[in-house]
Amino acid sequence: MLRGITEYNYQRVFRQIGVGFGVSLCLLAIAEIAKINPVKANNIIIAQEASVCESSGGSQFVSAETKNYLVYICGGDNPNTYVGMAKNGGNSISLPLQSYSRDRFVAVNGDTRYTLTRTELIVTQNGRVIVRQRAQWKR
Prior knowledge:
- Keywords: Membrane, Transmembrane, Transmembrane helix.
- The chain crosses the membrane at residues 12-31.
- The longest helix has 35 residues, at 2-36.
- Strand 5 (104-109) and strand 6 (112-117) form a beta hairpin.
- By secondary structure, this protein is of the alpha+beta class.
- It has helices spanning 2-36, 42-55; strands at 59-65, 69-75, 79-86, 92-101, 104-109, 112-117, 120-125, 128-134, 136-138.
- It has a nine-stranded antiparallel β-sheet, covered by helices on one side.
- The chain starts with a helix and ends with a strand.
């Protein structure tokens, strides 16, 4: 009788291993297809948003989107970091905030100033506007 239970358990374990192995192969194939044909979807952007501020050791206060950029305001107890990312996968920058209020965040990198308001992103260099785009905030 004990031998029958043991054989049954072995069969069950091997069946579970086989199913798990098959699922693993299927997921691996899906992952490989995704590398070849990446799909841009809102849930990918949401996952990206969550990880941007977590990787800087804080939480997200504001995220904003313009025609060409994604901007995140991150921090601990208070906002303290500006993160800007080009949508085309190009440049990104992470800077400490120089100042902030409820509706305005300012970060400075040398002679370049990044200002995010509720309605627009303005980037100036040597006092000259180099980027001015309408921004849509998400909280």
